[in-house]
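Task: encode each sequence below as structure tokens.

Item 1
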Amino acid sequence: MVEPFFCAEESNTAGEDLIGCAVMAQFYVLVECPPPWSANAFHSNQIPDNLRTLVQALKQDKRTIRPLLIHRDRRQEPCTSVIILRQQDGVSFGYSKQEFQVSSLKEVAPLVSDYFNECHTHEPIGTDTRDILVCTHGSHDKCCAKYGQSFYRQAIATVAQLALNPDVRVWQASHIGGHRFAPTAIDFPEGRYYGRLDQDSFTAILTRSGNTQCFNHVYRGWGILPWAAQVLERALLLKYGWDWFKYGIVGRVIDHNEDESWNRVEITLVRADHTSEVYQADVVIDDNKKLHLRGSCGNTESYAVPQYAVKYLTKLAASAIP
């Protein structure tokens, strides 16, 4: 009897590095909708036609807008939450968040359209929560069902044990990418991506305490940065420890070759007192780590999966930001 194949098991066994796979997006549109969800979440039966049409339009927008379905266990309420996150400009700590409530899914599309057309006809509700999205989208990939759904339940229990309710909300989410790293999650409003989470690493992330070396194993990257800058950002996070989360960040790729096997990256950190430090490094393919993986539960053939390393990390400057 052939053992069932799970891409998350393959990736974990091979020791694939997670860093650099967080999705860059200027906006997220999170729509509360109870599962079950189809493999393409916005083709689910409960999604009204006007919302499906809007999602197709958002894909054509010149801005990068990422819609997701979310759901959390709570008492039935006569409203649907819509959370819109917008990447901060300049020196960034992640995303700014606005949350709205409507009476039904049919009202979501007009609200979102008005938001992106800058028609401020809907009043956001006051909320300053931290929102953890755990991918449980099993119809998209079975690893998200096997690992994501159980982790979601455990995550709710962990938040309760740490007495973080109602400041931290844990949501089920439709496909966020990286299912071979399941269980995967996004931590908003920062927009940091994680994978292969367990309760110890999740507790460290929630409380920002303990050994930051866990980020070598669970950190996929910060979605406000280009993928190569995500690799450097992790190296700096490990250098500075938990203080790193207090800093505003500007990151960019200065130069790269055609196949991006070499990338010159710069990250500027800005402290609360407006002092800053600038780092540059090369992010390059690590020839000592060569992997061939199927990469997804649906694939039948393996392919090369590049792994990256940070070389020639240099501190360039320390200056005051006006």
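Item 2
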Amino acid sequence: MSHNILSVIAAMAEVATVTHDEPSTRHPKKPVITISRDYGSGGDVIAQRLAQRLTIPLYDEVVLKEIATRLQDDPAIVKMLDEGFGRAKDMWLYRLFSGNDVGPDAYRDTLVKVVMSLGRMGGVLLGRGAHVILQEACALRVRIIGTPEVCAKRMAQSGHGTYDQELAKTREVDHMRGKFVWDVFNSRLSDASQFDIIINTDRMADFEDVVEMLEGMAKAIHAGRVLAL
């Protein structure tokens, strides 16, 4: 799926200049879905299919890092973003400003700016606490889970590694994702109130039904057919 980097930069500039009281900051141009997922739960597959169904961009960690690389070379955006990210190697968009080590507050501030900007455009945002950042926005917040044993078996059967290797990786990745959200936002992935829907994929062989359900929910939220908070 192609992504227009310049449109992301434009959206970031728009967020920086528009006041939060204006209606346009609360309603995105296209549906917005945040997906938090356990490793091996099928969350990545669901996110990709959902983005295709809704014809909206999928912003995973790789795409966001590519955006950061482009922003690093743009003087206007570097000036707008007066602080960079933190230096932990597992942090998203690690070392946006090469050579500058900054604290967690600066990282969190910039992370919020980028996610809010992408949220204005519409799209599927994978991980990195987007569900916390957009909790008051017009976004569908989804959590995809699975037990470590089932997720490890699914990944092993897909050729990613042995069952024991994938079981260890499942536990490690899930721990690190949960730690990230707690360290940055003081929020736990186990807190069900942070999501609009939580789906356990342990007994699901095909995710099409999940995608279809989430498509309907995302359209309903975007159209305003939900309870106003």
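Check on item 2: Confidence is low (pLDDT under 50) at residues 19-25, 73-103. The CA atoms of residues 89 and 95 lie 9 Å apart.
End of task.
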